Predict the structure.
Amino acid sequence: MRGAMSGDNRTSVFIGTTVLAAFLMSAVILVVFQPYAGPSWMVALALFILLSVLASHLSFRVTSTGSVASLEFLPELGCLILLGPAGALVESVVSGLVTQHFIFRNQPRKVAFNVAQSALSIGAAGFVYIALSGEPSLSVLTFSQAFPAFVAAAVTYFATNSVAVSSIMSLSEGEPFLDIWIRLYGKTVLFDIVVSPFAYAVAYLYVRWGVLALILAVVPIIGLRYSYGVNIQLQQLNRDLLRVLVKTLEAQDPYTSGHSIRVAERAKIVAEQLGLRSKHVRIIETAALLHDIGKIGNEFSRILRQKGPLTPDQRQLIRSHPERGVEIIQSVRALDPKVLACVRHHHERFDGTGYPAGLAGEEIPLGARIIMVSDTIDAMLTARPYRDALPVAVVRAELLKCTGSQFDPHIVKAFLATGLFGEVIDSTSHPIQATLSEDEVEPPQRSIALS
């Protein structure tokens, strides 16, 4: 029996299938809806190709792997109304080849997929437009006849485009299709549908004013591009600034430098292993990044560098850092309230003996339970003033030992399933011998794991 195809092979098969489907659809469209190709038709086609190239040039990146979003759908849908499926198809393919090769300078495989999925999207929209009695025309547009057909065509375009792009991203990035779709389109699909009538307006004005309508369309397209991308870009900037802030603060202490970033990375991996949606993964990652922000200040710095046991007052101060952290970040309006809950409760123990609220089991926010495990593991794997970094085998054994008391068993199982520790071993095979700080031991369960 053959093994399952690798992700790269599945991606290649999907690209080939998409290209083949686009070729067959294009052949049918060009035969059934033969382009008029008169002078006015050719002029309109050339102008809409230029407008489409401009819209692509104003695109912006939406993922770390280079996926982009643009308003190219506006001239494509406008061209459909004026020139019909054949004209819109030609416009889509020509502008796509130009922008993919000369503007984005993509590899041939990526060019082929992007052009093919765009052709499929506008082709499917064209069939719907004609089926609902939409009548392509450069001389007259009847609103009652053309607009309902246009709305249906636009919805078909977005559905086809989003399914194709989300599918290829799911295969290439190894994430669930629905998570990818929500990440790429969840916050923009409604905006796309609301903005799409602008394409109808451009087509209507072109019928009345000709070239002047496209010149006037450039300004709102530029404006729409910036309103379209500003939310995503601000979110990316906020995440980057948070990482820079945390990294700068932790750099002041060699023993905690990089701790929060590592905890955030591990928490993200565990959240993904649990199959959480992309939005929830981002919330947990952000909370993990900020979980120790309440330890800002010289008084905490002195305690964290202290080699001896903590005094009762110092212990109480350490216990205050989750609430202090919430006080610091709660004024940031862009943060989801769930981030605050995860930061506040990341020291709650599964058996209910943690702090600040003494929550137990599933009363503790899921993100906080994940951060507790990730935080503890990084603390044990990192050198402290009072001890060296612990071996991975010892850390793994301690993790298993405290499962059910300090840690949620499901979270521990998910962490071990990520492969970060390799194979699970018997927790009794490695005796635990280490000098610990008061902050790492929480009664009634004495443990080298953080409380």
Remarks:
- The beta strands are 60-61, 68-69.
- The longest helix spans residues 211-250.
